[in-house]
Structures are given as C-alpha cells and as structure tokens.
Amino acid sequence: MCVNVTKLGYARLTVAAGSPEGVDIDQAQLACPLVIVDEADRLSIKSLEELRDLSDRHRFGLILMGMPGLEKRLARYAQFYSRIGFVHEFKPLTETEMRLLLATHAADFGISFDPTQLDAIEAQAAVIRITRGNFRLMERLFAQMRRIMTLNRVEEVNADIVQAARDCLVIGSGN
Fold first, then answer.
1. How far apart are CA 34 and CA 30, in angstroms?
2. In terms of domains, do 76 and 99 share one?
C-alpha cells in the first residue's frame, strides 16, 4: 500500500481553489495533516505497519476506526501500540440524541419530519426504535426511505415508509 500524502494535500487544495495554480509543495504537505482509516480492523498488520511508517515519515495524524477488538489486536505490536494516543468507543446514540439529530439534520439526508404531523412523529419514533441509536443503520434506513418515497412519488414520511425501508435492509431480528 502506497499513499502519497502530499498528493492528497495537493488534490485538496486544488479542489478548494478550483484550480491547481498557486498550489505549491509546502502548502500541499500542510493541507493533509490527518488521515482517517475506517474498517481498520480489516487491514493486515503489514498494512497497518505501512500506515504507521507513513505517519512517522510524513508527520500526519492517523485515526483508525474499526470494530471492537482492534485495540487488543494492536496491543500485540509494541511498535504500533506505543503510538496510540487514546481509544474511544462509540456508544449508540440515546433517544434524546436521536431526536435532536432527527430534528436538526434529517434534511441533510433528504428526509424531513414535520413535528406538527402525527404521521411524521410516528415515523420518527419508528426510526428511533429500529435503529436503536446506530448512526450507520440510520443512514442506510434513510437511503431506503428516500428510494421508496421517490419510487412511490410520496412527499411526506410516515411509519409505513419507515417499515418498508426496514424490510428492504438486512438487519438483525432485534430491530
């Protein structure tokens, strides 16, 4: 695995400016000080060591995200583990956090819940019940809800749409 962080920084600055003109190597190196790796638990130790080496040589921050057990796995490799600043376990969102998220950001996902409509309130409750605070599941559920609403030319969300979207997803039986 070979990652050129300078190229990432150069690309970021070029996109931000709308043009590659005026972007120099020093700016590019500073423009990407953080690399985030999702599903890091799926990487081999060789790939993780490569990331560690790149981080050491190019002086960028590294965030590894993965399933529970990643920290225990990394603890077996002292060279790597000694560089871990802290570990944070993401807990499911509480019902209050879910309600706040739905009220303030559901539109970002293309879904809106009208707080004055009983159907929307029931739909919101169904989303909270089905996802149980799992943000990734909520995102997948919203994508299915949007698809169903578009196909059926429905403007307002309701509990039936939420349930239909849930039925389309592969979700454990607890939901």
1. 10
2. no
- Asked if 92 and 108 count as a contact pair (C-beta separation under 8 A), the reply is no
- In this structure, the chain runs to a length of 175
Q: Which of 93, 96, 155, 165 lies closest to 126, judged by CA?
A: 165
Give the DSSP per-residue string, 17-49. HTSSTT--HHHHHHS--EEEETTGGGS-HHHHH
Does 90 reside within a domain? no
0.85 exceeded by pTM: no
C-beta separation of 120 from 157 below 8 A: yes
Q: Within a 13 Å sphere around the CA of 5, how many CA atoms are in the beta-carbon half?
A: 23
**pLDDT tens figures, 46-98:** 998 888 888 888 777 888 888 888 888 888 888 778 878 778 887 888 999 99
- Write out the two tokens for 35: 């690399």
Q: Which residues contact 74 (CB under 8 A, 6 or more apart)?
A: 48, 64, 80, 81, 84
Q: Which domain holds residue 132?
A: 95-168
